[in-house]
Amino acid sequence: MRKIKRRKEKNKMRIIVISLFLFLIIMTSGYAAFNTNISLHAKGNIKCNPQNIEEKIKKDITTEGDGLYKDEYTEGRYIYRGANPDNYIKFNSELWRIISLENDGVIKIIKSNAINDMAWDEQNSNDWLKPATINIYLNESYYESLSEESQNLIITHNWEVGMVSSDNDNMQLELQEEEKKTWNGKIGLISHSEYLRANSNIKLCGTDKKNDENHITCNQTNWLYSLGLYWWTISGRIDSNFLVWDVNGGGTFSDAFPAAGNENHYRYVFPVLHLSKDIKICGEGTHDNPYIIKN
Length: 295
Prior knowledge:
Elements: H1 2-44, E1 51-52, H2 53-57, E2 67-70, E3 78-81, E4 88-91, E5 94-101, E6 107-111, E7 117-118, H3 133-145, H4 148-153, E8 157-160, H5 171-179, E9 182-185, E10 187-188, H6 192-197, H7 202-205, H8 208-213, H9 215-218, E11 231-236, E12 244-247, E13 253-256, E14 267-268, E15 272-275, E16 280-282, E17 291-293
Parallel strand pairs: 4-17
Antiparallel strand pairs: 1-16, 2-3, 3-5, 4-5, 5-6, 6-15, 7-14, 8-9, 10-15, 11-12, 12-13, 16-17
């Protein structure tokens, strides 16, 4: 009888110990989940301290690799270069990328995804000032499609839209060609030289001729190449009345027809615009944590 009684007491004690053990496990798991939820909730509600966009991005100026570089041709101007710099920014609830900080403090950005493919000009002209069909479209229909808040952030700015010669091996000369014509407007396209200057490998890729000769290498150090496809620039060909420069799928330039009435010559469109220098931002400029405008 004593043995049976002891056995019952041991079993009872074992049940109590197991129950306490299970209770502790449940309580520990519950606390961990509760604590995690608090942490996540807190992180989700962290408020950043918005900074002026110029002041923030100029903290990360570099001389090698991916990042923001001083423009060696224009005093006070800065350019993003490299394979994938941290230049992402949310605009109009969409992902865009910063091309440059202009010398007057405004920010030039390009949409990271094309809006469509279309003719550069329905009259087969390569003169942006005419105005070209794509100029009208971007500054009327496309502009009106943006939110009112986004429209208010866009500033009218001077653009260099001069025509560019073929196979140029002198960037200074190319810039002089682009500067011969200017346009004052809101939304345009990237220029011939801006594509080249987005490359961090200036030695092998810093001019049209070098980029053409070394395009396989150059594609690896130019974030604009990642846009892919065939897409329009704002630059016409200087020795032609109708040819326009595009960036082709190989990362070099093609002189394309403006494409009136021929969809085979249509190219994709990546809108470009300037944002006010007074905007404030949060974020880090990465794809997953882009700059967020907090005005």
